[in-house]
Known about the structure:
Blueprint: E1 12-20, E2 26-33, H1 76-79, E3 95-99, E4 115-116, E5 125-129, E6 135-140, E7 145-148, E8 151-154, E9 156-161, E10 168-172, E11 176-179, E12 189-192, E13 198-201, E14 212-214, E15 217-224, E16 227-234, E17 237-244, E18 252-260, E19 263-266, E20 272-275, E21 281-285, E22 289-291, E23 297-298, E24 302-309, E25 312-319, H2 321-324, E26 333-336, E27 339-340, E28 347-351, E29 354-356, E30 361-367, E31 370-376, H3 380-385, E32 389-401, E33 408-414, E34 437-441, E35 458-463, H4 465-476, E36 484-488, E37 497-500, E38 509-515, E39 519-522, E40 538-546, E41 557-565, E42 571-579, E43 589-596, E44 602-612, E45 616-617, E46 626-632, E47 638-643, E48 658-662, E49 673-681, E50 687-692
Antiparallel strand pairs: 1-2, 1-49, 3-46, 4-5, 5-6, 6-38, 7-8, 9-10, 10-11, 11-12, 12-13, 13-18, 14-15, 15-16, 16-17, 17-26, 17-27, 18-25, 19-20, 20-21, 22-23, 22-26, 24-25, 28-29, 28-31, 30-31, 30-37, 31-36, 32-35, 32-37, 32-38, 33-34, 33-36, 39-40, 40-43, 41-42, 41-44, 44-45, 44-46, 47-48, ...
Amino acid sequence: MGSRRRPSPLGIIATCVVLLGSGCAAGNTAAATFPRPAKPDGFRPAAAPAQRWGSAQGQDHLVPGAARSVPVPASLRQRYPLRPEPAMPQAQPNVAAVAEAPAGAFTGFDPRTSVELPEQRGAYERTYANADGTQTTAFSDSAVNFRGVDGWTPVDTTLVPASSGGGWRNAADRVDLRLAARADDPTLVRVALDGRHAVSFGLAGAAPVAAVVHGNTITYPGARPHTGVEFAIGHGAVKQTLVLDSPAAPVTFLFPLSLAGLRTAAMDGGGLALVDELGETQATLPAGFMEDAAGATSFTGVSYQLGVASGHQALEVRLDPAWLRDPARRFPVRVDPSVDFAGADSSMVVHGGSSAINGSELLVGPAGGSAAASYLRFGGLVGRLRWHTIYGAQLSIVAYDAPSCSPRAISVHPVTQAWTAGPGYAYPGPSVGGALSTRSFAFGYIPIGQSSSVCPADRALFDLGRAGRDVVQGWVDGAANNGLSLRASATDPLAWKRIAGSGTANPPTLYVTHSPYNAGYSIPNPVPNPPVLQNQAGKVKVTVTNLGAEAWSPSSYYLAYRAFDVTTDRLVTQRRAADLPATLARGARVTLDATIQPLPPGKYFLDFTMVRTGGVVFTDEQVPPARIVLVVVDIPPVLQELYPPNGYQAPTLNPQLWARAVDIDAPPASTLRFAFQICELTTAGARVNCASSGDQVSQAW
């Protein structure tokens, strides 16, 4: 405590109380003034009236006299009125307004940063977690995973040495595929679908040539006169190709069959099916075709005939000799009688006046003199993503053949007409909508006399854009899933392309970026009631609509908010705001009383968002929040009473000073602090000779 001085005879003693908050910042100030020593104030009393004796009998009640002003001396209280006690402060409403939340930074699938989620694998899909919080599921029209002893395992079509019996096998697939070390092995190819169903075949009259293996392809060069045999292992399929190097090559090939638990059945369009004891198709042999080195194609020049060889059922493949021996033929000619063990019917080629399931390749453009288009359907997509929010879609294909390296356009279209893969369609095929995406390229052309391509086979990725996103969104929301169509010019002879089909190691794949979480929000009145203070929570009504893929139960979902400092955009807090009163069905809405916990004075963005118990915040899943801008004010402490009061005549030079105050928005665990000061006032009103208590918790000094 500082020293005090005796007041000057001409001074006035004043006290001042400064009220401080818990942070020791200056608050309200109040002062009391003590009277200086009394002195003449200019008042002069009038002379007393003369007294008369006698009777008042007959006198008037009033004695006339001259009017004059009689000054009344000012009292001490008049000169130093009491300081009125201020009213209890009231919290005013917050300043608040609805604001538009910034759009999320959508990036979707990126092979460099997206991480596969093995627990979400299925037979036809793989799902990836993206850096922006979304997920991307890659859908194939052939199996990309199989259920092994450790759950879903990726298919690996690489050929590896067989551990027993010699030869080769596929590395990993639900279908166990074995290929012989030599072409003359009676069991040239054996495929075990499961423990009870299998098929194997050989090539009658084959020479004892050794296999040549590269990756997922095995070749038996010269297995028949002027003919090599090639097998390319795909996802649940074998693409078999007979490579004829001259017109002298045979036009019939016999494949003795051995079937376990299966039987053959004719298919529309000239193909064959392998059917189990329940009548279910386990494998298909789509109708074959021939293509020469110049790109000329025959879709009618390959036929199948079932017969008997050495007491066993056999498949005879017959080739059109007239087409093969046409002087316009350019050799080698490749003959494709593929076997598809996936039983897939989600891809189809429409070529000229016919159509067929084709698991080994897709075709677009005027190949072999007739226009072609391909159709794809990803049937497992809808069941996997029902009611999800779709953010984007990309179609990936591998093109491996073209008539030149001159780029030509190929486009992706939504199919607008229902279709079933198989025969019965002619070009242009089932109806389609406008192009979703178009790219120009040419991959795989090898000039005659050359052994490699300057534009080798490669992958092409089509971003289907907003229109494609909306098409897929329609599928998962209940619209007909008629799939997609690949198309090229029907008149440009350089526009045709061959594309790897569903039964190959590089099947067409549709990458769909999605999220099961979505919500709509509405805040009609953003002003909290009661107001949000440092020590008081407020409430605001938020209407929430469930736009997600599942019903929201109170135990699994709740409303929360994130508070950001407007100046720094720094996250201040994330708090639970309201619980659901009952399960909220998809499409239903509810209005919640959202609680905003106390906040320090400042300006905030409050982003309201649904949260799935366990940590999934909808905002992090690209779902825009409901945002309000909220201002929290600091209500200063108020002095309510001082002692001594104003005008107090202190009987001592060391009077005790005391104050009472209130802070209605004091933060938790805070304490009011007081600072007292006593000074002399000069006649000019300046404070001199002051003594101060300093900052203290005590109300008295």
